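quick one, 134 residues, struct below
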Amino acid sequence: MKIAEQPATIIAESAAVPWLRQQQEKWKRDAASLAFQVRTLTRLLKHPLVPWPAKLVAGFAVGYIVSPIQLIPTFIPIIGQLDDLLVLFLGMKLVYRLTPAKLIAECQAQLRSSTFARRENPGIVGADCTEEAA
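---
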């Protein structure tokens, strides 16, 4: 009887491996997307043509995420991270509504560009988003 049970166990374990790999890939994509959204918010915060209400929302969203003082501390498992995601989601929704689509597309294209050049003069606020990619 043990011989007949072993192949079924092996088949069940091997079927779980592709699912686990798919989940790991999905989590990697989600983490990369989250990092991209934070970088987009930061970039829009520095852009000189973005309206000030959108900059205010982006600043609060990024500030809340990096702040050590939060409504629900991040060290609390799951719930602490979910409130950060909620703030980021709501912040991005508001920023997208308050900012012209052309500016958002410009900053996201520069973030995706592998040839994006760092700004030459760090004293100019917003220079990295308005420069042409090299």
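The mean pLDDT is 76.
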